[in-house]
């Protein structure tokens, strides 16, 4: 098998790819925003995006996958169709945003990546990790994050925050991204088990942060990122 074009090769400039993972309500989006602000304050070039989304095509896919009204209009979205749409979004984002940013030497921050597919579709939907990772290998050309910040606070508190936040968002904006939040607790417990398995399998890439004050977690994340960037010469 040939080397992926995304491999970090000695003597070749390349940016740094950091993903944020966890259940909705875990605080990952807040921590990513805080890290972005700090990195930019140090003069580093940062490209930030979310998945699904981050491109014109991705935003359309996001509307289909997350809006709880999608299935009323389109009919049930099967687990495999859901997985395929997630990776269609990811392929577009890699080609249009992530790849060019890494080639420029940017630090890329991404709110969710393939770990989310392994957790939500592989674990939550029951498709299994092997199938998700096979699709990742085929679609993403081996592009893995250099570092994954995985936020795994208390299960019930995290899920409660997510459901409350999304209901408030609907009331305030009229837009609805509650399709996944309608699932029962058993679905989310399978996701949590899958996240735990990913962290155990790849301890060098995945840094897990549990319960804690937002500021404390921010400083802990920053410390890890500083060390990793220094090691990469960034």
Detailed description of the structure:
This protein has 234 residues and is α/β, with parallel strands linked by helices. The chain has a single domain (16-231), classed as P-loop containing nucleotide triphosphate hydrolases (Rossmann fold). The protein contains 9 helices and 5 strands. A 5-stranded parallel β-sheet has the order 2-3-1-4-5, with helices on both faces. Helix 4 crosses helix 6. The radius of gyration is 17 Å and the shape is globular. The model has no long low-confidence stretch (mean pLDDT 87).
SSE layout and pairing:
Layout: E1 16-21, H1 28-41, E2 46-50, H2 56-66, H3 70-74, H4 79-104, E3 107-111, H5 114-124, H6 129-140, E4 147-151, H7 155-173, H8 185-201, E5 206-209, H9 214-231
Parallel strand pairs: 1-3, 1-4, 2-3, 4-5
